[in-house]
Amino acid sequence: MEYVRLAPAVTNATKLKETENKTILNNMKVDVLLGLQWGDEGKGKVVDVLTPRYDVVARFQGGPNAGHTLEFEGKKYVLRSIPSGIFQHGQTNIIGNGVVLDPVLFREEAESLEKSGVDLKKILKLSKKIHLIMPTHRLLDAANEKAKGGAKIGTTGKGIGPTYTDKISRNGLRLGDVYHNFDKKYAAARDRHVAMLRSMGEEPEFSELEQKWLSAIEYIKGYDIVDSEHLVNKLLADGKSVLCEGAQGTMLDVDFGSYPFVTSSNTICAGACSGLGVAPNKIGEVFGIFKAYCTRVGAGPFPTELFDETGKLIRDLGHEYGAVTGRERRCGWIDLVALRYAIMINGVTQLIMMKSDVLDGFDEIKACVAYEINGERVEDFPFSIEEDEIKPVYVTLPGWKTDMTAMKSEDEFPQQFKDYIAFLEKELKTPITIVSIGPDREQTIIRK
Ligand code: GDP
Ligand code: IMO
Ligand code: MG
Q1: pLDDT range class, residue 1, cuts 50, 70, 90
Q2: Does the pTM of the predicted model rise above 0.85?
Q3: Chain segment 22-68, per-residue pLDDT in tens
Q4: Residues enclosing ligand 1, CB less than 6 A?
Q5: Model confidence over 348-388: pLDDT tens digits?
Q6: Distance CA 131, CA 275 (A)
Q7: Count of alpha carbons within 13 angstroms of residue 98, beta-carbon side
């Protein structure tokens, strides 16, 4: 079956005609949208923009460490565990088996969405195989960070690492367990965690949070808790199309990211297969999303980080503060060595460039095309990117010095911006099919 690419003639994603949607849908399989940098690339915004083209939107990994921001009609939402496909035309949204879920945070998020009019219980399905983040996982996350001292990862503190650790060590508690001898399984896991915490010198106190957690478990039972791998595959067999929404980014992937300063899941395209139960041959387009510059939150190496006024300017203009923790995001120039690697690992077929508007006023823009390591030029992403070993090799490009935030079509792009896109496409050997010029849903240009 031939795959049809994004409708090329459309200039505004939200104004797709029904007929155009149909043409695209008929040939679709499972498309994946994922971050190519260290997260916060703008995944939530673009998933929302693309949702009208799909029947199903699904999260496949990560948990409430994610913060996906959507802005439309003057409103702003930050989603953490719930997919970004809930605001369009009643598409089915799935939280897949690869996700770790904190019932308390899920309840807060869901209740607030229900208050703003989203009929979540109707459209959202949760996998029975989701692993549950327990109150003691959060305490273990904090204790692990404390024990690491100066080498701490700077996690989001949401219990992500300990929950995935329990999954892999075969000690985890799954959402489907709520119907199978749950109290006993919960107590055993909790007691095990308490013993671990005590062995680390902690005296855990979490009775209040535990009550909230147990009450949130009852709340979740009001949702459709399903065998989501069967559901997804049945929908596909019925000709439905699925968009998988990545969390974090490739540089935070537990296998290929800047280990050990990574998250605990596979954020890459392969994660969509294991995190939803879809076979690799079902994957169609892979949308790789990146900022026109680069950011990172938390600790760990970042070769193109800027410690000067330019870095500060990018942070201020781009409002680069964490959507979950409010922490300052570290800012730097775009890193094409890391991007080429991410494109390779994920099999990216289309690139999406975000936040170019942040650079609208810059005289010059830099792009890292290679690293210099011990005097040698390196273009393939190396085993280690520790700062003291690496010097980025930059090329300097002229800025476009034009406010692009109100543009509606690529025909309006200034020449220098067109040149920047052409430069990136050549370096990355992949087409940039969407450009985002502001946080709002409408500020999205689909290229011809
Ligand atoms: P995600 O985790 O990948 O979904 O990204 P986040 O929501 O954590 O961070 C992206 C931030 O940039 C959010 O505050 C968005 O509202 C904002 N944003 C998204 N696209 C654009 C854009 O093109 N321009 C600007 N200025 N902001 C954007
Ligand atoms: P979204 O989906 C940016 C970072 C943390 C920390 C490391 C490990 O919004 O792009 P964890 O709590 O996962 O054990 O933390 O990963 N991190 C993110 N950074 N965006 C995210 O998600 C992130 N999720 C985790 O800051 O450095
Ligand atoms: Mg985010």
Answers
A1: very low
A2: yes
A3: 444 444 589 999 999 999 999 999 999 999 999 999 999 999 999 99
A4: 35, 39-45, 66-69, 71, 318-319, 323, 354-355, 357-358, 436-439
A5: 999 999 999 999 999 999 999 999 999 999 999 999 998 77
A6: 11
A7: 25
Distance (Å, rounded) from C-alpha 32 to C-alpha 267? Answer: 11
Q: Whose CA is nearest to atom 4 of ligand 1?
A: 68
Cα distance between residue 447 and residue 338, in whole Å = 24
Tell how far the Cα of 142 is from the centroid of ligand 3, in angstroms. 21
- CA–CA separation, 419 and 205 (whole Å): 58
Q: CA-CA distance, 321 to 66, in Å (whole number)?
A: 13
State the average pLDDT over residues 317-332. Answer: 89
For residue 300, the ligand 2 atom closest to its alpha carbon is 27
The helix (run of H) or strand (run of E) holding residue 164 is: helix 160-168
Q: Which of the ligands is closest to the CA of residue 407?
A: 1
**Per the structure block, which two tokens stand in for 401?**
């010095």
Give the C-alpha separation, 106 to 114, whole Å: 12
Residue 297 CA: nearest ligand 2 atom is: 26
- Which ligand has the nearest atom to the CA of 64? 2
